[in-house]
Fold:
Amino acid sequence: MYQKRKKIKHRTKAKALFITRPQLKKILIDMFSIWIRSRYADEQGLVKCFTCGQIDYWEEMDCGHYERSNNYGTKWDEENCQVQCERCNIFLSGYYERFAENLQIKYGNNILQKLKIKSQNKSKIYNFELETLIKVYYEKCQTRFHVPRVEEKVRAVVKQYVRAGGVLGKGAVSLQ
Ligand SMILES: [Zn+2]
Structure:
């Protein structure tokens, strides 16, 4: 395992042909955010804010985190992250009280404890895991292509990814 990691590091350094870690994170954040904001959107692209119930177009909404987004254990967690309007996410700093209530309604009483434990997981996330998550959310987003502008936004993210040296497989090639 150690040897394998060392080898990858060396190759990256020598040729710089591989996508960098910050680039991978940025792509994953963008792809995941499209998924969270569009997953419950209707065919007009409208979606309800998880905390206040306001309905707006998915692109106008934010990807809100219950446990803070700098915790890798829950940064890309589909329960921890919910669609929120800008007012709740930014101006009400997440509207945590209501976020907690609605998480419990949606996922059961243990959810807050579960997310807390997950968020405290300090283990490093490897680049290959970031790559895997990009693929996972790329595939999930494809199930939302009937929602206005989702396909277009996903294409733009994939384009950045491929330009930076990322590889998604055959599905991605057809998107370019
Ligand atoms: Zn709201």
